[in-house]
Amino acid sequence: MLYDVRSLIGSPVFATDGETGRVRDFLFDDESWQIRYVVLDVGSWLRRHDVVLPVNTFEPPDWATKVCSVRLSKEQVEDSPDVDTEKPVSRQQELAMRQYFGAMACWVDSEFGLASIPAGVKYPTPEGEDPHLRSAHHLIGYNIRATDGDFGRLEGFVMDQGTWHLGYLEVTALGWLHHRTVVIPTLWVDYISWPEFRIYLNHSRSTR
Question: Which residue ranges form the domains of the chain, and what is each CATH number?
């Protein structure tokens, strides 16, 4: 089955010892469209505090109740590296996540033990090389351009069940008389122009 990723934004996240935060965003690889990390707000109502967790620390989402569970303690979650989702994720930030989570920071689905994860460790996150990690939230509103002209605007993402893969873009297609919502396979994406806030397709507007 396919699910609207937006429906998980704001969902509560439960650690092994209780509720620990809420989903704020997803970081994905802009070449494979695989979600690699989930951004959580673990702060209070007075102050937001975003941390990032590898997707393979999560159980599959409960789509009926919109609840997520993670195989970490609250302490491990709250001491996870911070991330700036408003910018492309720096290589140093990804290295900090890999240092903190070890093998679990790899996007490949595998099972790893949790005993080696330290708590209370902070890492610097200077600017650096771009590892193709992008914020799903940041892309909302990007223009979609087909090979023969502008097509519409990105409204959201559709995720394949159990894979953490963004299989489709939800797009508001622009027409002469009305707008309509369509889904476009991410396989049709040629490239993303971050300076132009635009997603280029390798198909024409008439492709079905």
Answer: 2-136 (2.30.30.240), 140-201 (2.30.30.240)
CA triplet 164, 34, 93: central angle to 5 degrees? 110
Q: 3-state class of 91 per DSSP?
A: helix
**Hey, is 37 helix, strand or coil?**
strand
Chain segment 134-173, per-residue pLDDT in tens: 888 888 999 999 999 899 999 999 988 778 899 999 999 8
pTM above 0.85, yes or no: no
Full DSSP string of 146-198: ETTEEEEEEEEEEEETTTTEEEEEEEEE--SS--EEEEEEGGGEEEEETTTTE
Q: What is the DSSP letter of 61?
A: P
